[in-house]
Amino acid sequence: MNVYDSDRMSDVLAPLGYAPTDLPEGADMVILNTCHIREKASEKVFSELGRLRQLKERARDQQGRQMTIAVAGCVAQAEGAEITRRAPWVDIVVGPQTYHRLPELVSQIDPMARNRVIDTDFPEEVKFDFLPGEHAPRGPAAFLSVQEGCDKFCAFCVVPYTRGAEFSRPVATVVEEARRLVAGGTRELTLLGQNVNAYHGEAKDGKSWTLGRLIRELADIEGLDRLRYTTSHPLDMDDELISAHGDVPQLMPYLHLPIQSGSNHVLAAMNRRHTSDVYLAVIDKLRAVRPDIAMSGDFIVGFPGETDRDFAETLQLVNQVGYASAYSFKYSPRPGTPAASSDDQVAEEVKAERLESLQQLLNAQQFAFNKATEGQVVDILVERAGGRAGQMAGRSPYMQAVNFVGDESQIGQIVPCKLSAARQNSMTGEIVAIKGAA
Ligand code: 5AD
Ligand code: SF4
Question: Residues enclosing ligand 1, CB less than 6 A?
Fold first, then answer.
């Protein structure tokens, strides 16, 4: 979502004459869009700010130029005061719900007065209503935020505090944005939300629509060939959404569905409000309607009170599911969350060991998944130049990164591609024939 938000920030700043640049050197303004989910992400902000301070001083001393430094995102939201204390060279602190006000905030900066502006409100107004259209096309595969915030309050998670309460954008504004993106050349949309499948946006018929219903509506947009959504909570996988996986061809056969732990004891302590059986039943239902669906997930190891036996249950669950990919993290105590003050914290070495063995298993599953797709011919949406000269890159329906010999004229086309060789994190492919004019 930060990628999406960053693009929207550049939309809102474009009328002021700002345009994105690749490097901070020479920039008039640098915005760090930050993540607070784990301590590591958060701490990176301060080291990055140290580097930016030098750039700012050099711009001023050697070029007589002002460089505005802004911190946006969830670290700004949660640690605004700490940022201005530890990094007084920061000019603007702006939270995830107020970045539509950036033009106003920028105008309040006075380099002579060396003032600072902080806006970390949860405002009455909805930022989406104030954001202009896309200043630049988003490319073949783009993000679209449909839902923000979370009311679930998992015991480890800062999201309900930093992103605020659950909010769903009305159907009409989502459809309008999707149409605009497609008119600009986008063919694949990933619908975003911290709890995206809890979507319940207001529709013209006066009802609130589920994500499944919204997906069906978006699938009617001519030229929108692929849909994905992330991230979901198992309890919100309702039947309408599950059935969409069976009968909406645009909905890609890949789902990121975090469970965090395979132990019911840990799940309860995490306040996840479901058991591992509930999660496995959801996957069974998904596989019944879409047998080839590729599963992805998130795992936390070393949550307070997690025993060796609990952890063994996580490994067992992973074995039962068989993931195509997954993310796993050491539990990171976050300020203000209930689990952070538990006196049952797991030792760092134990977390490290568990993470290592979980990742070994997940990596093996990912490679096995890739290997099993070898020889298949699948549609690839060509997104960009690949890692090596003469190569292009895109994603398979299963979200695998695929590299193949091609040229830039193919960007934005959907091409049938034979997955010829599996690697750990990607596939090598060969285009078998170009489908009519894409
Ligand atoms: N420590 C470790 N991992 C966390 N996540 C969220 N909060 C924490 C935390 N305090 C992970 C979860 C979530 C993903 C986005 O980040 O696995 O699904
Ligand atoms: Fe955080 Fe997701 Fe739990 Fe919400 S459902 S509190 S975003 S982990």
Answer: 37-38, 156-157, 258, 260, 298, 300, 329, 331-332, 334
pLDDT, tens digit, 9 for 90 and up, residues 221-257:
999 999 999 999 999 999 999 999 999 999 999 999 9
Ligand nearest to the CA of 198: 2
> How many angstroms separate the Cα of 149 from the Cα of each of 97, 227, 368?
10, 21, 35
Same domain, yes or no: 351 and 304: yes
Which atom of ligand 2 is closest in space to residue 298's alpha carbon?
A: 8
Q: Is residue 436 part of a domain?
A: no
Among 195, 201, 160, 194, residue whose Cα is nearest residue 177: 201
- Bridge partners of 144, per DSSP, are 191
Tokens of 280: 């496995």
Instruction: Say yes or no: 168 and 105 in one domain.
Output: no
In a domain, 63, yes or no: yes
Residue-range definition of the domain harbouring residue 152: 137-252
pTM of the model: 0.96
Q: What is the pLDDT of residue 435?
A: 52
Longest distance between any two alpha carbons in the chain, whole Å: 65
In contact, 276 and 259? CB cutoff 8 Å: yes
In this structure, the strands spanning 391-395 and 401-405 are: antiparallel
Tokens of 10: 């550049």
384-407 burial code (b ≥16 CB/10 A, e <16): ebbeeeeebbbbbbbbbbbbbebe
Closest atom, ligand 1, to C-alpha of 298? 17
